[in-house]
Amino acid sequence: MNESVESFDNLTKKEKIEVLFDFIHRIFMHHALWFSETRHQLGDEKAYNLLNEVYKKTYNIQMKRIAKILNFELDDGLPSSIIHMEDKKLDELIRGMAANWLVNDGVWFQEVEFSKGMNDAKRCNDSCWAHFSPFEAWSIKRMLILSPNPGLDGLKKALNFRLYSAINKQSIVDENENSFIFRMNECRVQSAREKKNMQEYPCKTAGIVEFSTFAESIDPSIKTECLCCPPDEHPEDYTCAWRFFI
To answer: I need a surface site. Which of 39, 127, 222, 238 has the fewest CB within 10 A?
Structure first.
């Protein structure tokens, strides 16, 4: 953008569009920072209760305003154009959003790695998962209307609605009524590295944080055991495996 620009009135159409998406980015960041600071000041339970109310209210307000400006109909709070979208295209959009999430994660990792080194990148990554996994578990429990303690059956359902589930291939093998094994049969990150003839990313430390906090957030009685995860050796038909048990 030209340094001489003093107001929105002086922008070109392209520049206005750039401002629009920068505004959207700022909304996301402000929303996340509000939650982060509320959690810091008031604790996890209160912060998540407030987030539930904020999300419902702000979604309705913002969606109605956008629908009015862009002149599209809402059907039960959802854009009618998406409701009438072909299932195949909608599935593609969902997977595309999940892929964008993973790309965003990778870009953050690489930027920290290139500027500060691998150790700092892994440290930031593991700490990020310590916050994101409980949030994703909360979001899924809210979406599926799971009970506060849904047990292993609830965890099985939740694992099928993670962002990863839309872009990776995974499977669940029951051991008994008190435990099951979750396997990541095809990991998008590791597959991409393999295509580039790169070594597997040693994700075990992040995985332990990711899976254990996710399971505990679904039901505090669920425990997690890592059976294998890079840099561990593993069979060809899965990259990592985790036992969840009560």
So the answer is: 127
